[in-house]
Design brief:
Fatty acyl-CoA reductase C-terminal domain-containing protein; 128 residues; mainly alpha; two-stranded antiparallel sheet; single chain
Length: 128
């Protein structure tokens, strides 16, 4: 009976996520980066022609990359996806952050089980 309750909880989560993402997964958009490029160019022009005083009264030049980081090549993708997954868990799945250690332990266990199952299958598939 407990197994059925677990499956029901999993189904409810899947259903909730599917409903929340339906609009974004069933429509199609085309994006261009022209507005962003114009914004970067405009910001570079402003910062190139201006020096600001810092808190101590010293003049310092300002650059766009330091004040307005938009270069995706500079993005730390590992941190981004870590925060993304935490955000999905918290805001979309409505899960308590306190459940993260337990979920990590379960995932580790599943990876180990999958590893041994795949090795056994590989060993059994080797002809004598």
């Amino acid at each position: 009976m407990a197994f059925i309750q677990i499956l029901d909880q999993v189904y409810q989560k899947v259903h909730r996520v599917t409903a929340a993402l339906e609009f974004f997964t069933t429509n199609e958009w085309t994006y261009t980066g022209m507005n962003m490029l114009r914004l970067i160019e405009a910001a570079e022009d402003v910062y190139r022609n201006r020096n600001d005083e810092n808190l101590y009264g010293n003049k310092q030049s300002m650059n766009v990359s330091g004040r307005f980081p938009v270069d995706m090549r500079q993005l730390n993708w590992s941190n981004y996806f870590h925060d993304y997954v935490l955000g999905v868990r918290r805001f979309l799945l409505k899960e308590d952050p306190a459940t993260i250690p337990r979920a990590q332990n379960q995932l580790f266990l599943y990876v180990i089980i999958e590893f041994f199952i795949s090795k056994k299958i590989l060993i059994q598939s080797i002809p004598n």
